[in-house]
Amino acid sequence: MEDHLMKILIIGDGEVGKSTFVHRYVKGKFNDQYRMTLGVDFALKVLQWSEKEQVRLQLWDIAGQERFISMARVYYKGALGCVVMFDVTNKSSFHHCHNWKQDLDNKALLPNGDSIPCILLANKCDLPERAVSADSIDEFSKANGFVTWMETSVKENKNVGESMRRLVQEIMLVQ
Ligand code: GDP
């Protein structure tokens, strides 16, 4: 069995659903109780990638912040992939994705100097009150070098495992 270890960062504004996403992905449950993340949360998920390959994902979920903050370099160190998440009902959380992605690209690079694979997740797509259109997400995702973007609902378990598989697939390609 071949074993891959991947450090993956989950970044984005506070309350967009990062902690519940990690919780759902790792434990398979939706945690609907608001919990302010204190410091850096770290979760482990083992993924059977193929018959011969196993991937151990270290998921780093940052401290709950209302707004964008520049993260310490040490947090980015050794990261191989990243999830930038926003809330589709919250326009400013979408606008801040630009800052999050720039901070990432300034501080986390692959050994060859390329930026690390990063996926953009539009969370809470189960809610009716959308504030960001699919067209603007698509345009932003292409202009800012994301692998792709996907709508997710951690609440309804939509695209949680799928988005992580897509990211891991991209990481495997660039390794
Ligand atoms: P974080 O600060 O980014 O880690 O956000 P949390 O994971 O703490 O989530 C903030 C709030 O959004 C919590 O009350 C969650 O239950 C809720 N939430 C997370 N994902 C979804 C979702 O897909 N749909 C809905 N409706 N609520 C969600």
Question: How is this structure best described in words?
Answer:
There is one protein chain. This protein has helices at 18-27, 73-76, 91-95, 97-107, 134-143, 160-174, and strands at 2-11, 41-48, 53-61, 81-87, 118-123, 149-151. Strand 5 (118-123), helix 5 and strand 6 (149-151) form a beta-alpha-beta unit. With 175 residues, the chain is α/β, with parallel strands linked by helices. The protein is globular. Mean pLDDT is 89; it is low at 32-38. The two termini are 18 Å apart. The protein has six helices and six strands, in the order E-H-E-E-H-E-H-H-E-H-E-H. It has a six-stranded mixed β-sheet, with helices on both faces. It binds guanosine-5'-diphosphate.
Summarize the entry for a quick read.
It is found in: Endomembrane system; Membrane. This protein is an alpha/beta fold and 175 residues long.
Structural class: alpha/beta
Helix content: 25-40%
Strand ordering within the main sheet: 2-3-1-4-5-6
**Multimeric organization:** single chain
Radius of gyration: 15 Å
Bound molecules: guanosine-5'-diphosphate
